[in-house]
Amino acid sequence: xxxxxxxxxxEWRVPHDFxxxxxxxxxxxxxxxxxxxxxIYFRERATNPGFPNVVWCPLIDLNWDRxxxxxxxxxx
Length: 76
Known about the structure:
- The structure is a single chain.
- By secondary structure, the chain is mainly alpha-helical.
- Helices cover 32% and strands 5% of the residues.
- It is built from three helices and two strands.
- The chain has a two-stranded parallel ribbon.
- The longest helix has 11 residues, at 35-45.
- The chain is globular, with a radius of gyration of 14 Å.
- The model has no long low-confidence stretch (mean pLDDT 80).
């Protein structure tokens, strides 16, 4: 997977406009070393009514193996 990280983005290439909000987000991707900073960033802004509440959203590193990714995405 490490050399194919772009494969995940292909699903987001839609030939038309569409709208969604934070409740539609299933996970976000970022290098694992940035996960703590991202959680802090989103937690600090969660009280802002105009900012999407994605604190709960799983964070995935595209360099993880499939088992690790599946573990992070397991149903809650």
